[in-house]
Design a protein that fits this description.
Blueprint (H helix, E strand, L loop, with lengths): L32 H38 L1
Length: about 70
C-alpha cells in the first residue's frame, strides 16, 4: 500500500495571500503572446467576413440586375 513520506513535504515560505483584484500593468513589448495571436485570429475572421459579404452582395446584384433587364 502507498504510504506518504512526511520528509518529502516542504514548508510554504511565503504565506501571504496575493490580491487577485490588483490589475497587472505591462509594457506593450511585454504583452502575452496569447493575446497577440487572438488579435490576429480576430483580424483574419473580420477580413474573411468582409470578403464573404462582398461576394454575396455582388452575386445578389447580378441576379437583381439580370432580373430587371429581362423584364
Amino acid at each position: 500500500m502507498l504510504q506518504i513520506d512526511p520528509k518529502k513535504f516542504k514548508q510554504i515560505q511565503n504565506k501571504t495571500i496575493p490580491s487577485p483584484l490588483r490589475p497587472k500593468f505591462r509594457n506593450k513589448s511585454d504583452t502575452n503572446i496569447y493575446f497577440l495571436s487572438k488579435r490576429k485570429v480576430q483580424g483574419e475572421k473580420k477580413a474573411s467576413l468582409i470578403k464573404n459579404i462582398k461576394f454575396v452582395s455582388s452575386i445578389l446584384l447580378l441576379i437583381v440586375g439580370g432580373y430587371l433587364l429581362s423584364n
